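Could you join me in thinking about how sequence relates to backbone shape in a protein? We need material for that, and I hope you will provide a protein of your own picking. Once you have written the record down, we can walk along the chain together:

…
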Amino acid sequence: MREIHYDEARVPRYTLPDALRFADGSPVDGAAGWRRRRAEILDLFASHVYGRTPAAASSPVSWETVEEGGAPDGVARRRQVRITFAGAGGVLGLDLLLYVPAGAGPSHPVPVFLGLNFGGNHTVDADPAIRLPTSWVGGPGAGEAHRATEEGRGRAAGAWPVRALLARGYGLATMYCGDAEPDHAEGFAAGIRGLVAPDSAPAPADAWGALGAWAWALSRGVDALQEQPEVDATRIAGMGVSRLGKAALWAGAQDERFALVISACSGCGGAALSRREFGETVARINAAFPHWFCPAFRRYNDREADLPVDQHMLLALVAPRPVYVASAEEDRWADPRGEFLAALGADPVYRLLGTDGLGAAEMPPVERPVRTTIGHHIRRGGHGITAYDWDRFMDFGDRHLGQPAGGR
C-alpha cells in the first residue's frame, strides 16, 4: 500500500476522464447527449465504485406515523414515521424523524433537509419523545451490546441545529444509517443488503456496498416525505457528512427527486478526486472499510489512474440540480483541495446544461463561500460539520430552493 502523504509536491500528474466525452471517444452534444452520457457514467460508478442496487430493493415501501406531537419548546411539530420494506429475507424498518416549523401545513409546505445520522435519531436532539433505535449502534453513547441508551440523547445535537433550521423556515428529517445497515464489516447480514440477498454465495464484482445501502435509505426517506402534507416534496435537499456525505452524493446521483445535494468533508470516495492520491487513498479506504464499496473497487488499490471515472463525474451526475461541496482547512485526510478540484471538474457539465456552474477558477480563501449552482466553501477547523457549515447550507437553500417563509 502506498504511503499516505499531505505534500502537494508528491501529487502525481494525472488526467481526469472527460465527463463530456462518451466511452467511444465521441463528444457529448447538448442536453440530450448529456442524458445518454449521464446513464453511461452512472453505470460506470455502479460497476466500479459503489455497486449496483439490485432490482429486489426497488419494491415499494410502506410507512406509518408512529408518534407525533409538538417539540418541547413549542417552535416545531415532530413526527416519527416507520418506513417498512419487505424482502426475501424478512422485513426491515427505518425510523424517520421529522421536525417542521409550527406553521407548516398543506397550504404552507416547507422545504426539508434530509440526512442520515451516525448514532440514532435520539442523538440529534434531547427531546425525550424521540424513539431509541433497536438496531446495532456504535461509537460514543453506545450501550452494552451496542444498543442505544438514554445517555445518548442529544449527544450529536451540535451537528444538527434543529432550531436554527426551523427559524429559517426549513424542516429537518433524519434517519439512523444503522437501520439500513450497521457500519461494521458484518453489518451486511442485519441490513438491507442481507435482506434482499440472504444467501451466502460469493458477491459479484459489482455487488453494492454499505454506501449503496445508505444511499438507498435516503431515497426511502424521500418516499416517506412525499406523503407528509407539511413537506414540499419538490424541495428536498439531501445532505451528509463524512461517509454519509459519500452516501448523499451517490443517492443524489441516482435519485433525481433530490432538488439539491450537499456533502461535507466526504473525502475519498465522496467529493475528493481519487487520482490526486493525497490523504486517504483508494487502497487505504478499501483496507479500513472493505464493506463500503463494491468488490471491483479494490482493483484500483494503488491504481487510481486506471479508474474509468473520478469524483468530478459523481458531482456532474447531480447536474443541473445544485450541489454543494464543503471542506475543512485542517481535514487534510479528506483532501480539501481535491474536493474543490472535483467541483471545478464538474463545471463544464453544469455550464453545458445552462447553469452558472462553479463561480471560481481557483480555490477560494477560507470561509469565502461560492454560491453558484455548484457551491463550495472551506472553513476553519477539522473534520465534521459545524454551525458555520449549516448556515452556508441554508444560504444555499435560500438561493436555489427559494427562500422559505420565516427565512431571512
